[in-house]
Amino acid sequence: MKERYARQIMLPEIGMKGQEKLGCARVLIVGVGGLGSPVALYLSAAGVGTLGIVDNDIVSLSNLQRQILYKERELGYSKSQAASLRINEISSKITVCEYNTRLNLENAFDIISEYDIVVDCSDNIATRLLIDDVCARQNKPFVYGAIDAYTGQVSVFDAQQNWRYIDLFPSATTASTNPNSGQGVIGTLPGIIGSIQATEVIKLITGLGTPLIARLFTIDIRSMESMILTYNS
Question: 20: which of 4, 92, 191, 203 lies 20 to 30 Å off by Cα?
Fold first, then answer.
């Protein structure tokens, strides 16, 4: 472990103790598409011990422009299975739990109960509201990310610190719950936002820095202007 994670361990804010925390952590990734791809890659590379993958989609040709987990030879494969194989190519020591299903009212409570942190890489409001509700009931943080053409945002929601998705988006319960799968996006944008989500997970696990709780990071890649909006939690 010292050799593999040497560049992280030498950071005094992480050290061997932080690396051990990463190895013991259990993180659930909901959706392994554009956002879930960099999240899964970076968390597995960082040494997170157990990753859960929730996705019932299959790999299609149009995914390859931005979903960097997958290869041409995996077209038609289950995303959860292909993601699991890729993660174990990075590290055979990681335990990967595949859920070839959509997160829904029937399974969300049981699945989320097995994990410490949830990463929302979904593409629709209904799933985010479900994650927000179950995580609040189970007192678990979840790392939110979303993209829209050229812009993206990230926050960390934690009901124990009075900061939930519905606090940031109170009108979400009346908004459309259908994913906009036909919307265009530059392939690098989910890479940027997913990498920030993975960073927030590492921060939560190790205690590094200040997580984006009661704060919203936003970026517009056309101008590379970014900002952090702070809210009263």
Answer: 191
